[in-house]
Each structure stands twice: as structure tokens, then as C-alpha cells.
Inverse folding.
């Protein structure tokens, strides 16, 4: 998942980048409100973390600007302001959740995962399509209740496709939302991941969970339960 951190404290920003990258997020960052408005308007994100006390434009102004530009990715406010009035103002500005500093990393991750799931239309942490299930908390994928061993990149790929089941996802979108800047975008690495996933999720070639949409990308088939 592609995430934007807007935080002017360099130490906290580095900490957040480290925590979230370890959890599989593709993280981008900025320290000023104006830069945040630009990045949020120009690039697609799955979720953003915004501090309220930013230099230049405040976090509230950043969120309002995004919403006025019809940028609807979920936003988590992360700030030292704990008064209920600040929370109300933040939510009314267009934020989706609010976490007060200091915070526990586990709570931050849980809240972010929930925001991403809900934005994709999934309330529960478990995604299930026929015999294939994925737990976004434990990051485990199962086929017929048996765990499927996946690499980190393979898991990120199938999680994104399953969260967006039924939608055609281009190779460019997959690459930008899941992989870091040093990922070899000109290679066939993504095709290799998808081929391996097909072999692991559909060893008998009866389910066809990941379908290729010629010239457009890939689509996770939400109707695999109807196939024999």
C-alpha cells in the first residue's frame, strides 16, 4: 500500500517511515503543508498520515485542500492535540481517523489497516473468495484453510489485488502502490510474482483467481467460488 507521511518532526518522521516500511507500506514523506497539498493532488495514495502543526499550511488546511480537489484517500491525523474540539475539527475537515501522540505503533498500524480496508469496501480484516482467504492483520494467505507461503512482495501483490477484487489494476498502478522506488520497473519482475501467485493459489488450475486483462493489467476474480 502506498502511504504519505506529512510530519515536520524529522525524528518522528524517520521513525514512522521505518515502522511502516517494515509493515509492507510503500512510504513517501514531506515536512511542509504546501508540499503535502501538491503531493496529495498529483499522486495516488492508499492512505495518508497528517500532523496538524505543520509549517506554512496547517494539517487542517492540507486536508481541506485535498477534499476540495476531490482527493478521497483516507487520512489519519496524528498530533499532540488531544482536546475533543480538535478531534471534531479534524474530522469535519475531512479526516477519517485521529490518533494522539504519544502512540503505540501497533495501534497506528491497526488504524491504518482498517482505513485501507474500509476504503476498499471491506469492514472485516479477513478477505475470503471461495477457498482463498487473506488475513490483513496476520498477513497470512490460505488456500482451503492451509497457509500459502509467500514472499513479502508476493503478499503485497495478492493483498492489493484482493482488496480491489473485480477491478482491473494496471501494472503501473501495482508497481507504484506496492513497491519502493528502487524496484526494477522495466523488468518482468511483476509478471514473475503474478505467475508464482497463480501457481501457489491455483495449483490445479481450476480457480483462475488472478486474471490477465490483455493490454490493461490484472484482475482478482471475485467469483472464484462459483468455479469447480
Amino acid at each position: 500500500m502506498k502511504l504519505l507521511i506529512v510530519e515536520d518532526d524529522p525524528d518522528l518522521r524517520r521513525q514512522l517511515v521505518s515502522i511502516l516500511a517494515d509493515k509492507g507500506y510503500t512510504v513517501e514523506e514531506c515536512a511542509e503543508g504546501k508540499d503535502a497539498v501538491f503531493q496529495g493532488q498529483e499522486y495516488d495514495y492508499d492512505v495518508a498520515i497528517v500532523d496538524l502543526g505543520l509549517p506554512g499550511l496547517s494539517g487542517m488546511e492540507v486536508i481541506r485542500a485535498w477534499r476540495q480537489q476531490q482527493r478521497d484517500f483516507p487520512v489519519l491525523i496524528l498530533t499532540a492535540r488531544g482536546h475533543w474540539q480538535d478531534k471534531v475539527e479534524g474530522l469535519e475537515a475531512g479526516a477519517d481517523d485521529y490518533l494522539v501522540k504519544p502512540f503505540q505503533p501497533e495501534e497506528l498500524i491497526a488504524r491504518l489497516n482498517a482505513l485501507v480496508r474500509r476504503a476498499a469496501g471491506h469492514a472485516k480484516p479477513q478477505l475470503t473468495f471461495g477457498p482463498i482467504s487473506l488475513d490483513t492483520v496476520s498477513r497470512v494467505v490460505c488456500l482451503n484453510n492451509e497457509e500459502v507461503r509467500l514472499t513479502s512482495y508476493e503478499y503485497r501483490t495478492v493483498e492489493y489485488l484482493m482488496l480491489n477484487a473485480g477491478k482491473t489494476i494496471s501494472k503501473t498502478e501495482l508497481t507504484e502502490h506496492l513497491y519502493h522506488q528502487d524496484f526494477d520497473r522495466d523488468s518482468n519482475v511483476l509478471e514473475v510474482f503474478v505467475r508464482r501467485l497463480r501457481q501457489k493459489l491455483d495449483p490445479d488450475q481450476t480457480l483462475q483467481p488472478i486474471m490477465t486483462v490483455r493490454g490493461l493489467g490484472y484482475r482478482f476474480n471475485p467469483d472464484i467460488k462459483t468455479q469447480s
